């Protein structure tokens, strides 16, 4: 890999880490379009890769938040149980669906999130 391309990848990674750390998540909304457009990765592989790269970012961000006593464990644990169950179901479903359907679902939820934020 060329040094310029490696530098770009590291720069993208730093931006994604900043977004994830600042918002407490959401890096996937940047990673997936980046991987599909810039790296020409298919949608399903981009979504799976996004989860892979976001895991360490989320762990580091969580540790920092915990150091500042910003984590609400009473609400966090039950939500985490649901997220793990949903994550298993979602990952299984991702592998069974057509790439275009997965892209459509991803776009739908990005738009839904944006529209929801407009009216809050």
Structure overview:
This protein has five helices and no strands. It is an all-alpha fold. Helix 1 crosses helix 3 (43-67) and helix 2 packs antiparallel against helix 3. The mean pLDDT is 88.
Summarize the structure.
The protein has 120 residues and is mostly helical. The chain has five helices and no strands.
Properties at a glance:
single chain, 120 residues, mainly alpha, 5 helices, globular
Helices and strands, in order, run as HHHHH
Derived from helix and strand composition plus strand pairing, the structural class reads mainly alpha
Globular, elongated, flat, extended or rod-shaped: what is the shape?
globular
Q: Helical amount among residues, as a percent range? A: over 70%
According to DSSP, the number of beta strands is: 0
Task: Quote the average pLDDT.
Answer: 88
Describe the largest sheet.
Answer: none
Distance between the termini: 44 Å
Lay out the secondary structure:
Layout: H1 3-23, H2 28-37, H3 43-67, H4 73-96, H5 99-118
Helix pairs in contact: 1-3, 2-3
């Amino acid at each position: 890999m060329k040094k310029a391309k490696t530098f770009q990848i590291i720069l993208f990674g730093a931006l994604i880490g900043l977004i994830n750390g600042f918002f407490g998540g959401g890096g996937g909304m940047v990673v997936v379009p980046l991987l599909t457009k810039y790296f020409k990765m298919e949608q399903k592989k981009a979504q799976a890769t996004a989860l892979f790269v976001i895991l360490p970012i989320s762990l580091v961000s969580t540790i920092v938040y915990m150091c500042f006593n910003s984590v609400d464990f009473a609400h966090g644990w039950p939500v985490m149980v649901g997220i793990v169950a949903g994550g298993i179901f979602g990952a299984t479903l991702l592998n069974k669906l057509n790439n275009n359907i997965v892209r459509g679902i991803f776009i739908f939820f990005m738009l839904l999130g944006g529209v929801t934020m407009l009216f809050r």
